[in-house]
Design a protein that fits this description.
single chain, alpha+beta, six-stranded mixed beta sheet, 6 strands
């Protein structure tokens, strides 16, 4: 992620989303869906999530792709945890990709050692629940999915 050229861009016009949610596994949490609008935000997301979302910088800058972070905030006030990174084609209003840490998919077995480690640290409950949040946001914004 060195030599990232700084770019920022206009938001794509889709709305951010919040959802108060309670499950036995996660307790009371607040989910947020927020757009990433600079190459630095993409790089930071890629670093924290262990994937290469920063490669989308040019597509975001020219308006072909919009990248969103789905994350949760626990009641104890710890900082927001990013759970899922979502790519959207704003012109077609289609979710083209949704990936968790180390490119994991919700409700699927982890494929790499890193992903297995993340799952054993309680991440599995978060990524699996993030699918529900993504679905609700898609309904809210009338997005289709082809991920």
């Amino acid at each position: 992620v060195d030599n990232v050229v700084f770019q920022s861009w206009q938001t794509c016009g889709l709305r951010p989303y919040e959802l108060e949610d309670e499950t036995p596994e996660l307790g009371q949490v607040r989910w947020t869906v927020q757009e990433l609008s600079s190459s630095w935000e993409l790089a930071a997301a890629g670093t924290s999530m262990g994937h290469c979302v920063v490669s989308y910088s040019d597509q975001c800058a020219d308006g072909h792709t919009s990248v969103w972070s789905i994350g949760l905030q626990r009641e104890d006030g710890t900082e927001r945890e990013a759970v899922l990174t979502v790519a959207v084609d704003p012109k077609r209003r289609v979710v083209t990709q949704a990936r968790g840490r180390y490119n994991m998919l919700p409700n699927q077995a982890p494929r790499s050692a890193q992903a297995q480690k993340a799952v054993s640290s309680g991440y599995a409950q978060m990524i699996n629940r993030s699918e529900h949040v993504l679905q609700r946001w898609c309904e809210y914004e009338r997005l289709r999915r082809e991920d």
